[in-house]
Every structure is written in structure tokens, then in C-alpha cells.
Amino acid sequence: MADDKEVPDEEADVAAMLDLSKKKKKKKKKTKKDDDEKAGGDGEGGSDAADVSEQERLLKEMDEAQEFAGEESDRKADYTYDELLDRVVDLLQANNPDLIEKKRTRIKPPQLQLLSSKKTLWVNFQEICSMMQRDPQHVYQFFMAELGTEGSLDGNQRLIIRGRYLAKYIESLLRKYVVEYVTCEMCRSPSTDLVRDQRSRLYLCHCRECGSTRSVAPIRSGYHATSRADRRAARNAKA
């Protein structure tokens, strides 16, 4: 009887060990590889969505840029220096064309003729004074003071100068007169007026273009040749 009880117990133990029908299912352990694959799958999906949103944003910015470029006048604080300069020049040309286009006044060179060995005739003296818009008497006083001689105006307003002079020398003095009594020091325009102030008795050069005013140097007294009668009168005055 004892042997019969041991046999069933052994069979039960073997059956329990080899019972495949009631075999327990083992839980599959999650490996790191599976987690990485799952995470990788989710990442690819998120990356695709991010790419789509980025493309949409870029397309929207391109559309806005095209609309922005189509209306250059509506841009704010986005002008370059050259663009601003061009706009200023265009406005000046449209509203004040005289300020952009400089008008050059060409003065004819003096035409001289020798009347004799001691006299020189300035033929176009009156014409040059008219071009400079200056009083012939003022120009006459300037040249007599610079040349240190005497002269006179004939009936045709031609200047007769005592002495022999070359045209180049007279032209150099004419340029000096233009710089001192004609040209504006601010804008270099020859459109000026020479007026005498009643209070200070000084000559003022007023520019009609820019409106500036400056005082000019007075003309020093010119040379005066004394004759015998002048010397006799001077001696009598001292006596």
C-alpha cells in the first residue's frame, strides 16, 4: 500500500512539472529596443507635423513679403540712404528746378585797344558792367584804384585808361572784382545786388538766390596825378 501511494505522488509531481496544457504564459519583458522604436515612431509623426507648420509659416511670410514689396511707399523706417537722396532730389527738381540746375553766368573777356603809346581803350566796358549788374562808376573806381592810374568814360561808355595794359592783366583784375563784389560767398551765385547802407555808409552784397547778405570792402582812393596848377594851389593854401 505504501508503494501504491508513492507512485501516484510521483506521477502527480511529474504531471505537474510536464503539464503543458496548463502552462502559464510569461509576460514579455519590455526591452529598451522596443521603447526606442515606439519613441521613434512617435517622433517621426511629430517631426512631420512640425515640418508642415514650418512650411505654412514660410509660405505666409513669402506672401506678406510680396505684398509688402508691392507697396514701397508704405514701408516705414526701411529706406536706404540712396533711396532717400533720390526722393529729395526728385522733390527739389519738381518744386524748385532753379536750385538743382546751376546757372552759369559767363562774362566776356575785356576787349582792349591801344589809342596811343600812353592810352588804352576798354571797348566792351559798359557791356561787362551790364552782365555783372553793377554800376559803371563803381567798377571804374575799382580799376582806377587797382591800376593806380587815371581814366575816363567817353560818350559811348567806353573806358579810356591812362597807360598801356594787356588784356590778361585787366581780366585778372576783373575776376578779383567778381569775387569781391559780385559772387555770393554762401551759394556762389552771381545773382546779387550791391546796395549801400544809409546808416553805416557801407556797401552790402545781397544774394537773390539764398537771401544771405554780407558787407564788402570799400574801394580805396585811386591814384590822382598832380599837375602844376594843383601844386601851385597847394603852396598857396599853405601860405
UniProtKB/TrEMBL annotation:
Residues 102-213 form the Translation initiation factor IF2/IF5 domain. Residues 1-56 are annotated as: Disordered. Residues 32-41 have a biased composition (Basic and acidic residues). Residues 22-31 have a biased composition (Basic residues). GO terms for cellular component: eukaryotic translation initiation factor 2 complex. Residues 1-13 have a biased composition (Acidic residues). Keywords: Initiation factor, Protein biosynthesis. Belongs to the eIF-2-beta/eIF-5 family. PANTHER family: EUKARYOTIC TRANSLATION INITIATION FACTOR, EUKARYOTIC TRANSLATION INITIATION FACTOR 2 SUBUNIT 2. This is Translation initiation factor IF2/IF5 domain-containing protein. The lineage of its organism: Eukaryota, Sar, Stramenopiles, Ochrophyta, Bacillariophyta.
